[in-house]
Amino acid sequence: MKILSDIIGQPAAVRVLQQAVVTRQPSHAYLFHGPESVGKATCAQAFAAALLCTNVTANGDACGECPSCHKFIAGTHPDFRTIGLEATASGQARWEISIDQIRQNPAKPRATPAPLLTDAYYHPIVGDWKVYIIDPAHLLNEHAASALLKLLEEPPPYVVIILVTSHLARILPTLRSRCWPVGFRLVARDLIERALLQHTDDFAQARLFAALCEGRIGWAMTNICREEIDAARRATIELLGRVLASRPAETLRLAEELREIAREALVEDAEEPAPAPEPRKGKRAANHTDANNTEEGAEETRGGMGGERLLRRSLPLVLDLAITWYRDLLLVSQQSETLISNEDFREQLVEQASQLRPERLRNGIVALLETKRVLARYANPTLATEALILHLQS
Ligand SMILES: [Zn+2]
Q1: d(Cα 279, Cα 276) in Å, to the nearest integer?
Q2: pLDDT (tens digit, 9 = 90+) per residue, 161-183?
Q3: Cα separation of 3 and 352, whole Å?
């Protein structure tokens, strides 16, 4: 079990939460928000454990040893629950948190476990609080969100609800205004590198993933052990070597190879496992400022673009791998070899760098970043990768 003091790179958030534990005066509702994979969910768990612990440390951490902590670790604490995306009866992943998870429908048989609004009115069994985590909170559907709002307007005194989201703009303003906001931020690279070295002895690998994850420590932790990522890195480096020496006639084939690497490396996104279309086109869609999501919904309704959607999710990783390679080439060409990420390809780096002008490398990095940018704005992945290869060739 992670305790609050274990959370890496979020000192401000941790301080506020530990303070709430020590003073035994938590807010009734929190809204944990910030980029994906920076530790929000882990922190929510650690905070819940600390609130429920009957023997908290002076810092405000769970002790890990009391009966309450034992139940928490075993996943059987009666005063704690996480509400998230559940599979449907037919086993399909849902893409929203439904009203049935929040409120009992009088026309339906009694749900077990009891929906949040029923459960919240039973007093805690073990300690002073009942803690609920709702994650991802931006996927509460409209009805679920307004039912939750009723609870937050007059919560029982022992209830603490933690909403977790990476899409703050998609949370109803009325919900937001009733929660204590706790912001999370991208984690510094050296902190991530140090954390990764507790899981691997491979210094080069830790440095590479700390560079690749762009501050998303959870991503680095999950993926450092995945062989597909390392295979993608090797394939990308090999491909880039051929691109540099290729002719325009080969552009289309090389672009297809790049897309193939991306397909093979597809990374499941831990925070949104279900494909999340945005079918509610009503007033919420009109309200929300997160333009990407409405477009994502539009893309879904055009249909038949599953492959494109997958590519849009996996190509950024491959582009990041390519950017670290180009950055390494630039570092080598400037005699700063100690800073390179692809330590195990040092020889190739030295050889390629000697053949390339720094200007071409800088242009390459710009082209890679631009491709990431247009993909995020729903450019066609086939056209975007072809344009990229053309840039890298010239
Ligand atoms: Zn404890």
Answers
A1: 9
A2: 999 999 999 999 999 999 999 99
A3: 46
pLDDT digits over 210-255, tens only? 988 889 999 899 888 888 888 999 999 999 999 988 999 999 999 9
For residue 53, how far is its CA from the centre of ligand 1 (angstroms)? 4
Question: In the block, which residue shows the tokens 């912001």?
Answer: 183
Buried b (16+ CB within 10 A) or exposed e, 92-110: eebbbbbbebbbbeeeeee
Least confident of 5-14, 37-46, 332-341: 332-341
pLDDT greater than 60 at residue 285 = no
Say how many Å lie between the CA of residue 64 and the centre of ligand 1: 5
Q: What's the CA gap between 238 and 230, in Å, rounded?
A: 12
Distance from Cα 67 to the centre of ligand 1, integer Å? 7
Beta-carbon contacts of 43 under 8 Å, excluding residues fewer than 6 positions away, are 4, 7, 10, 13, 14, 17, 32, 184
Question: Which neighbouring-strand residues pair with 160?
Answer: 131
